[in-house]
Write a structure and sequence with these properties.
With about 220 residues, this protein is α/β, with parallel strands linked by helices. It contains seven helices and nine strands, in the order ααβαβαββααβαββββ. The strands form two sheets. The chain has a seven-stranded mixed beta sheet with strand order 3-2-1-4-5-9-6, with helices on both faces. Strands 7-8 form a two-stranded antiparallel sheet. A hairpin with a 2-residue loop joins strand 7 and strand 8. The protein is globular. The two termini are about 30 Å apart. The chain binds S-adenosylmethionine. The site of S-adenosylmethionine has 20 residues, from strand 2 and helix 5.
Length: about 220
């Protein structure tokens, strides 16, 4: 989205932990009342797209998978239903992790690991993953009102630390174009594939509202 230097979106509350804490507190109450896990960012199709790619590549079902900023954890539940057995979700919002734990309990998937972690300051044990997935978390971090550019750089450093050489990184974003993401992840990552996403037409120009890319960590 950026044209000539900076991003075309400004800082927002969506880039802060209090926003997500309050949002997931609400979703937790909603879940307790209705059993509904709440918002699936970028819709069901975004999960199908990721799972389809993993299956097409015949990624072994025991590969270690990290969902960065897992929110309600629904993507992990879908991965487990597909057969993946080594799943971890992290989120810096304790209320998101509380919600994902409730969803995990309802789905009877106690082998999914869930933990409160800030991806910008990951613990040492968070390492050696074969697959990392991000659906909307890099976007949220990019909206932080306090030094978003520095936080994006820290994100890339964290990713280099937690993802094994040769491992795959699947990112879905609505704030960044393919070219911008290639630039953000240029150090240590190679683009493997752009996953098709729905196109929209506005003012005679056709574009994608969501970008989904697969990177490979350099070997
Ligand atoms: C747009 S939501 C997406 C949630 C989930 N990935 C999904 O697709 O439904 C962004 C998520 O990133 C989490 N998040 C933001 N910054 C984070 C950070 N530094 N470390 C870990 N999680 C973070 C938020 O708490 C929130 O759950």
């Amino acid at each position: 989205m950026a044209g000539g230097g900076g991003p075309a979106f400004g800082p927002s509350a969506l880039g802060t932990r209090p926003h997500w804490d309050a949002a997931y507190e609400r979703e937790l109450r909603f879940f307790q009342d209705t059993g509904d896990a709440g918002e699936i960012w970028f819709g069901e199709e975004s999960m199908v797209r990721i799972i389809r790619w993993l299956e097409k590549q015949q990624v072994p079902h025991d590969s270690s998978v990290l969902d960065i900023g897992t929110g309600n954890g629904v993507l992990l539940m879908e991965l487990a239903k597909t057969g993946y057995t080594n799943l971890t979700g992290i989120d810096y919002s304790p209320s998101a992790i509380k919600l994902s734990e409730k969803v995990r309990e309802k789905e009877g998937m106690s082998n999914i690991k869930l933990q409160v972690e800030d991806f910008l300051a990951p613990s040492a044990e968070l390492s050696g993953f074969q697959i990392c997935i991000d659906k909307g978390t890099f976007d949220a971090i990019s909206l932080n009102p306090d030094n978003a550019a520095g936080k994006r750089e820290q994100y890339v450093r964290s990713l280099r630390n937690v993802l094994k050489p040769g491992g795959f990184f699947l990112i879905t974003s609505c704030n960044w174009t393919k070219e911008e993401l290639l630039d953000e992840f240029r150090e240590g990552f190679e683009i493997l594939e752009e996953l098709p996403t729905p196109k929209f037409c506005f003012g005679g120009r056709v574009g994608n509202s969501v970008t989904a890319l697969v990177f490979q960590r350099e070997k």
